[in-house]
Amino acid sequence: MRCLAGVLLVSVAVCPGVTAAQDTAAAVVPAPQTVDSAAMRRPVSPMGAFWRSFLLPGWGQAKLNRKLTGGIFIAFEGLTLGMALKTNHQLGYLKRTGDAAVDAKKQELEDWLTLLVFNHLMSGLEAYVSAHLWDFPGDLSFQAVPGGGGITVSVPLPRQ
What we know:
Blueprint: H1 2-14, H2 16-19, H3 37-40, H4 46-55, H5 59-63, H6 67-97, H7 102-132, E1 141-144, E2 151-154
Antiparallel strand pairs: 1-2
Helix pairs in contact: 4-7, 6-7
C-alpha cells in the first residue's frame, strides 16, 4: 500500500499539469456533425453477414467493407484447401503403393479439413460481430492537456 501511495505522490509531483484544472475557455469544441441515416445503416444484417462468410469466407467481410480481414480469410481458405487437396493426392498414392504411412497421411488430411471448417466458422463469427459493431467509431483522437503534462483520449459515442 505504501508503494502505491509513493507512486501516486511521485506522479503528482512530476506532472503538475495533469492535476491542474483545465482552462475550458481555451478548449476547442468541435461543431456537432450531422449524420446521414442512410450512411449509418449497415449494409447487411449480422446473421446475413454470418451466413455469407460461413458459406464463402471473406464474403461477409467484403460486404461490410473490411477488405483486409476478408482477404486474410480468403488466403487462409486457399492455403487449407490447397493443402487438403495435396494431402488427399498423396494419400491416394500411398494407398496404391501399399506404404505403411497411410494412417499418418489420413490424420494429416483430417487436420487440414478441420482447419478448413475452423476457417469457415471463424470467418462467419467475425462477420457477425463486425456487422453488430458496424456503427461503432473506429477512430480515436488525441489531444494535449494544457500545461503539457499529459494526454487525454476521447472516444466519440453516438447519441441516441
